[in-house]
Write a structure and sequence with these properties.
Layout lengths: L4 E2 L1 E2 L1 H7 L4 H8 L12 E3 L2 E5 H7 L11 H11 L2 E2 L10 E2 L1 H8 L4 H9 L8 E3 L2 E5 H6 L1 H7 L9 H9 L14 H6 L1
Parallel strand pairs: 1-5
Antiparallel strand pairs: 2-4, 3-4, 6-8, 7-8
Helix pairs in contact: 1-2
C-alpha cells in the first residue's frame, strides 16, 4: 500500500541542510550548548530523527541565523517521494525501526529480521535516513499476512500491547532511548 508519509531527516540529512559535518548536529544537542532541544526529535531504534519542517525552520530559531540549503531540502523531498512536511514530532504517525520490529514480533534474533529484509520477504522501508531503514508502523502491520505465508518457522505473531504503545507514544522498549557514547556512557557503567 502506498501511503503519504511525513518527510524526515536524520543526523546526516540535518547536517546537509546546513552544510555542516554530521557531528555538529550532536554538538548542537549537547546540554552545554543548548542549541538544539532533544525534545524536538523522535527516537526510533535508539537514533534521533526530526520532521523536515522543523529541521528547515531550525536555522531561523538560533541566536546566530543559519541559512538552510534549499537544494538539499528539494533533494530530500525527491528522495522520499510523495509526502508532507510535518513540523513537530507529535504530528508524526508511529514509525518503527529494526529494534521496535524485533520487539513487536518477539523475534529470537536480529538475524531473523535481517534475513527477511535481504530476501525481500519484508516490506520495503519507507525511509532510508542516515543509513538506517525506517517504516511506518502500518506498513509493517499490513505485511503480516505475507510474512506469515512466507515463513518457514517463525509465526510472525504481533504483540498487540507493543503495537498499542507505539501508536499512543508510550513505547519504552528496545530502541526507545538514544544510546549515548563517550564519557557519559562510561560513567553509567
Amino acid at each position: 500500500m502506498n501511503r503519504r508519509k511525513p518527510y524526515l531527516v536524520g543526523h546526516q540529512e540535518f547536517a546537509a541542510l546546513y552544510r555542516v559535518d554530521p557531528k555538529m548536529v550532536g554538538q548542537w544537542l549537547a546540554p552545554s550548548r543548548g542549541v538544539l532541544d532533544p525534545s524536538t526529535s523522535i527516537v526510533v531504534s535508539g537514533v534521533r530523527y526530526w520532521p523536515l519542517g522543523f529541521a528547515v525552520r531550525f536555522g531561523s530559531t538560533t541566536k546566530r541565523f543559519r541559512p538552510v540549503d534549499l537544494e538539499v531540502k528539494a533533494r530530500i523531498i525527491a528522495e522520499q517521494g510523495e509526502g508532507w512536511e510535518a513540523d513537530l514530532g507529535d504530528e508524526l504517525p508511529p514509525i518503527v525501526g529494526q529494534q521496535e520490529i524485533i520487539e513487536m514480533f518477539h523475534l529470537p534474533a536480529q538475524g531473523n529480521l535481517a534475513m527477511a529484509i535481504t530476501t525481500g520477504r519484508f516490506p520495503e522501508h519507507d525511509w532510508l535516513l542516515s543509513g538506517s531503514m525506517l517504516w511506518l508502523l502500518d506498513t509493517v502491520l499490513d505485511a503480516v499476512p505475507q510474512l506469515r505465508d512466507s515463513a518457514r518457522s517463525l509465526p510472525w505473531e504481533v504483540d498487540e500491547a507493543v503495537v498499542a504503545s507505539l501508536r499512543d507514544g508510550t513505547y519504552d522498549g528496545p530502541g526507545s532511548r538514544v544510546l549515548t557514547r563517550g564519557r557519559h556512557a562510561r560513567k553509567a557503567l
